[in-house]
Amino acid sequence: MERRALSDGYLWTTLDYNTAPSSPNGTPPFTVNQVSDLSTATIASVGTPLWHPQKDDFAPRLGLAWQARPNLVLRAGAGIFYDLGYSDITNAMISFPYTQAKPLILGASFPLTTSEAAPPSFTTNPPASVMSVVDPNHVLPRTYQWNAAVEHSVTDSDVLTLTYVGAAGRKLMRKDVYIAPGPNFTGEFDLLSNHGTSNYNALQAQHRHRLSRGLQTLLSYTWGHAIDDVSSDANFQNVPLAQSFSERGPSDYDIRHTFSGAVSYDIPGPSSGVLKQIFGSWSTDTIIYARSAPPVNVVTGQNPFPGSILSGANSVQRPDVVLGTPFYLYPSGTPGGKVINPAAFTTPVPATAMGNLGRNALRGFGATQVDLTVRRQFRFTERLSLQMRADFFNIFNHPNFGSPINNLSSNPFTFVPNPEFGQATQMLANNLGSGGQSGGLNPLYQIGGPRSIQLALKLQF
Fold first, then answer.
1. Band of the pLDDT at 19, cuts 50, 70, 90?
2. Alpha helices in 8-95 (DSSP H)
């Protein structure tokens, strides 16, 4: 008998073309003539596009699969993917000249004088108090992805898969904030450019047990490492200071170890009689989740711009490290069992300098949670049944804590030691989101909350 290895694959490509944003009448927002030297930059003429879109953004994808043996399959794939990179570009439509600001002297007395209270006049002439622009040489951010996998059927019911996943982000969007960089820009100047990069590598292992004798399981483990120099283009990620510095480090979402497991089991019961009516048709579902700690970016809490009240600027300046002093302390009774040691850091000199502590150099707290469901099925007819279930979220009531406070100072202008620095002040569920207008899910539906129980009846017909 001849045995033949099977193979399959695909190769296809797309062409991504995305125009620069403009108003409904086709007029783009105001921009500048160049960004290489902001001290000489001028506001571009009306109608100048934010950038000139590229017409050669090809996105090829390749996938291969080979059945080397009846129980062994090899897979590989690679591709190029483009992002719009638009998340913060809309700020160009709500800054100069569409928004006019009239700053007042700090500590101005009330009531204001007639001239102080008069609203600013709208004009398209410089200087601009608040300006948000995109580098005229903007290109679409792109990610190069590749993967290789080995899938082995150990038994008729068990499949083991090992996968390597890699990705490289290039030309990613980043926002730099300048204060009064030139005579035509006297306030905050936000520049969006393609200077961000990222890398991701991961080894994934998965075990699947197909439904057999009432048992079905799915176990997954990932070791991964994400590195970048900016994890988001929507916040003050990179404020240029008086000297250059490196932002490359673990991503904000870098989780080294992640384990998840799901187990469903139909509990065997009596096959007949009264006991079947009581103890039959019971099942359980269990979800187990555990991960290592995310990064913590320790900052001084100081505003690195003398005389500026720029919102958010105090979130970027990192401190200097005190050699020989431990980063962590482990006092008893503290949330999570550890705190970040404030004595391990000092504020840089001069005040506008960036400290030598790396970005996202420290770690917060890991998370572990077990959810359990117990259910019973009542079947009345072939089509009519009732399911009764009880869901236990974080059944062991294991405490999980959010990231510790990372600001050394509680005052952005005068250093005041933050008494909460290095400590977890929230449970993980509250730290991840609060729902509503604040964004994120309601803490009730997040991992990391206290134990909660849900009872439900479901009628199927």
1. confident
2. none
Measured between alpha carbons, how far is 56 from 67 in angstroms, rounded to an integer?
Answer: 36
- Give tens-digit pLDDT for 379-418: 888 889 999 999 999 999 999 999 999 999 988 777 889 9
Distance between CA atoms of 430 and 412, rounded to whole angstroms?
25
For 132, 369, 438, the CA distances from 442, given in Å and listed in that order, are 33, 17, 10
- For residue 350, pLDDT over 80 is answered with no
Structural domain boundaries in the chain: 1-138+167-195+229-238
CA distance linking residue 441 with residue 19, whole number of Å: 33
| Residue with the two structure tokens 């539906």 | 445
- Per residue in 221-266, pLDDT (tens digit) is 999 999 998 888 765 544 554 443 578 899 999 999 999 999 999 9
Residue 444 sits at the vertex; the CA angle it makes with 438 and 446, to the nearest 5 degrees, is 75
Q: What letter represents residue 22's amino acid?
A: S
Burial degree of 61 (CB within 10 A; 0-12, 13-18, 19+): middle
- Note if the pTM is more than 0.70: yes
368 neighbors 290 (Cβ within 8 angstroms): yes
Encoded tokens for 183: 């005579």
Report the distance separating Cα 39 and Cα 134, nearest Å.
16
Q: Which amino acid is at 312?
A: G
CB 262 within 8 A of CB 371: no
| Rounded-to-integer distance, Cα 119 and Cα 412, Å | 29
What tens digit of pLDDT does each residue of 392-401 get?
999 999 999 9
Inter-residue contact 270 to 280 (CB < 8 Å): yes
DSSP per-residue letters across 167-186: EEEEEEEEEEEEES-BTTEE
Say if residue 7's pLDDT is above 80: no
Residue 394 CA to residue 369 CA, distance in Å, equals 5
| Tokens at 56, concatenated | 């050669």
DSSP result, 228-247:
ES-S-SSS--B---SS----
- Contact predicate 143/118, CB 8 Å: no
User: Mind giving me the DSSP string for 394-461?
Assistant: TTT----B-PPB-BSBS-SSS--B-TTBTS--SBHHHHH---GGG-S--GGGSTT---EEEEEEEEE-
Q: Which of 7-11, 150-154, 311-315, 437-441 has the highest mean pLDDT?
A: 150-154
Residue 276's φ and ψ, nearest 5 degrees, are -65, -40
Half-sphere exposure of 112 (CA within 13 A, CB side): 13
Say how far apart CA 138 and CA 83 lie, in whole Å: 12
